[in-house]
Amino acid sequence: MNEEAQFKLQAYLDGELPAGESAGVQEWLARDPEARALLAELQNTNAALAGHEAEVKLPETRDFFWSKIEREIGRQSVAATAPSRKSFWARWGWRGLVPAGGFAAVCLLALHLANPGAASAEFVPELELASDDMGAYTYRNQEDGLTMIWLYDRSSAAQSAQSSTPAILASK
Amino acid sequence: MKTDASQSSASDEQLVEAARQGDMGAFEELVARHRDKIYARAFSMMRNEDEAVDLSQEAWVKSWQRLNQFHGESSFGTWVTRIVINLCLDQLRKRKRQRTESIEEMDEETGGVERQMPAVTVNPTERLERGELRKKIDAALEKLSHEHRTVLVLHEFEDLEYKEIARTMDCSIGTVMSRLFYARRKMAALLADLKTEELR
């Protein structure tokens, strides 16, 4: 007997056979002792399981179990209403860097266009950041005409200057 | 829902309504009424007391948070049972991701030795006393893989149809039929083979 036939027999037992197929299965059962034996085994297993699930009880007292649930409900509702204490980078990560970086680049470009002659020697860009959570360091290499800007998360920088994530924008 | 007495005599529906209004006492009564059933379902799937306690506790916390999503399509107890079943399945999936594929796992779908096994013609549970039968079934369930055990639990104890099991277990109906068939065949073999001393 192949798998398809076995599964069909099982579906017949479970009342899951598509309409109109039951009569065919009954005819098959009437002429095939192997199918009848398999059906009997499946029926015996079902009958054994029906209503005989082991009775297990929660091994904790009502008060103790409830106190844990109550505490967890309270903890989670406080966590849900408390303002987020995640750092800027944890909340926004690199997604925040894209608009901030774009804004910085626009500033650089605006300064450059406003004062094109300064690019060779005296060009010192000025940055205005859109977020109070962010800070920036700039470095200008006059020789190469390169400006580098580090964007960092103020809160993580307060803990450790080395933990800030540098973002480098370059402009010539 | 002011007093303990009124809570204990209230219906589940009344308690749910009171709990929705923020009455923790009403929710505590609901927990007290259904906690053993929820724990039993978690234990039947996880086969571990600590995990079952933790997951049933988590199910109660989630049910409190989702009370507004309960619209009475099923009984409250059934609704929380579905929550704990889903939590157990999530936990089992996490566990499965952490373990490497084995021959036993491949046998989940193809049936392993049960595929070639002749039908057990004698009813192995006949004339067993009810408590003894329960012990025997519990010992046999313990020996099944969690995929086989889960599909049996959902079909035989929770009375779910194939398509509902497929949705719950996030698999196809064909997989459900296959797992259920081989789970039953394995159970038949285990019930026939389990010796009395193994049950003590």
Short account of what is shown:
The complex is a heterodimer of chains A (172) and B (200). Chain A is built from six helices and three strands, in the order H-H-H-H-H-E-E-H-E. Chain A has 172 residues and is mainly alpha-helical.
Describe the protein in words.
Chain A is mainly alpha-helical and 172 residues long. Among the domains of chain A are: 3-46, no CATH class; 134-171, no CATH class. In chain A, 53% of the residues lie in helices and 12% in strands. Chain A contains 6 helices and 3 strands, in the order αααααββαβ. In chain A, a hairpin with a 4-residue loop joins β1 and β2 (146-153). In chain A, α1 packs across α3 (33-49). The longest helix of chain A is centred in the middle third of the chain and has 27 residues, at 88-114. Chain B has 200 residues and is mainly α. Chain B has 10 helices and no strands. In chain B, α4 (49-65) crosses α5 (76-98). The N and C termini of chain B lie far apart (46 Å). Chains A and B meet through α1, α3 and α4 of A and α3, α4, α7, α8 and α10 of B.
Query: Total helix count of chain B?
Result: 10
- What is the element string of chain A, with H for helices and E for strands? HHHHHEEHE
- Poorly predicted runs of chain B are none
The interface involving the most residues is between: A-B, 38 and 49 residues
What is the 3D shape of chain B? elongated
State the separation between the terminal residues of chain B, measured CA to CA: 46 Å
Q: Main beta sheet of chain B, described?
A: none
What count of helical segments of chain A does DSSP give?
A: 6
The chain-level mean pLDDT of chain B equals 87
Q: What is the CA-atom radius of gyration of chain A, in angstroms?
A: 36 Å
Q: What oligomeric state best describes the polypeptide chains here?
A: heterodimer
